[in-house]
């Protein structure tokens, strides 16, 4: 675990929110490279499909959208995917989730729920269809 991750976990566990800058385009257009993200701690029972969560993954801390939660017999498995991605990430467990992204943006921060417009999701769908059925 990196020093940043351990500090972030401590800040969230103390009941505070945390802000940092996003790096990468996997959540484009909802979250853009360089956007400021605000994270709050949340209980695993509060997680829902469509939430954007910050999780510890094999490639490091990643903010992606929950696309499916499988309750199963053992620990629940959470499947996430970047809005700009074609495939899901490997499944994570609730202990991997540091918190929920509640705001994202540049100078004009918006609640993350407002950034998930139908138009943006339609653009992602078109990109995925074009990738699957090239001309």
* Average pLDDT rating: 85
Number of beta-strand segments? 7
Helix content: 10-25%
Distance from N terminus to C terminus (CA atoms, Å) equals 44 Å
| Low-pLDDT windows of residues | none
What portion of the residues fall into strands of 2 or more residues? 25-35%
Q: Any idea what the CATH architecture is?
A: Ribbon
How are the SSEs ordered, and which strands pair?
Layout: H1 3-13, E1 18-21, E2 36-40, E3 52-57, E4 60-70, E5 77-81, E6 97-105, E7 110-111, H2 112-115, H3 118-132
Antiparallel strand pairs: 1-2, 2-6, 3-4, 3-6, 4-5, 6-7
Report what the structure shows.
The chain has helices at 3-13, 112-115, 118-132, and strands at residues 18-21, 36-40, 52-57, 60-70, 77-81, 97-105, 110-111. The protein has 135 residues and is of the alpha+beta class. The protein has a single domain (3-132), classed as Umud Fragment, subunit A (Ribbon). The longest helix is centred in the last third of the chain and has 15 residues, at 118-132.
Features:
22% helix; Umud Fragment, subunit A; alpha+beta; single chain; 7 strands; 7-stranded antiparallel beta sheet; 135 residues
Give a brief description.
The chain is of the alpha+beta class and 135 residues long. Helices cover 22% and strands 31% of the residues. The chain has one domain (3-132): Umud Fragment, subunit A.
């Amino acid at each position: 675990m990196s020093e940043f991750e351990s500090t972030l976990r401590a800040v969230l566990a103390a009941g505070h929110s945390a802000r940092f800058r996003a790096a990468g385009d996997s959540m484009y257009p909802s979250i853009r490279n360089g956007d400021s993200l605000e994270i709050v701690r949340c209980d695993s029972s509060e997680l829902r499909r469509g939430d954007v969560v910050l999780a510890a993954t094999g490639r490091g801390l990643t903010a992606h959208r929950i696309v499916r939660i499988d309750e199963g017999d053992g620990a629940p498995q959470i499947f996430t995917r970047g809005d700009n991605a074609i495939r899901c990430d490997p499944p994570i467990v609730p202990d991997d989730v540091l918190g929920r992204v509640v705001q994202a943006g540049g100078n004009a921060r918006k609640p993350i729920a407002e950034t998930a417009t139908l138009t943006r999701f339609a653009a992602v769908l078109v990109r995925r269809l074009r990738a699957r059925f090239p001309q």
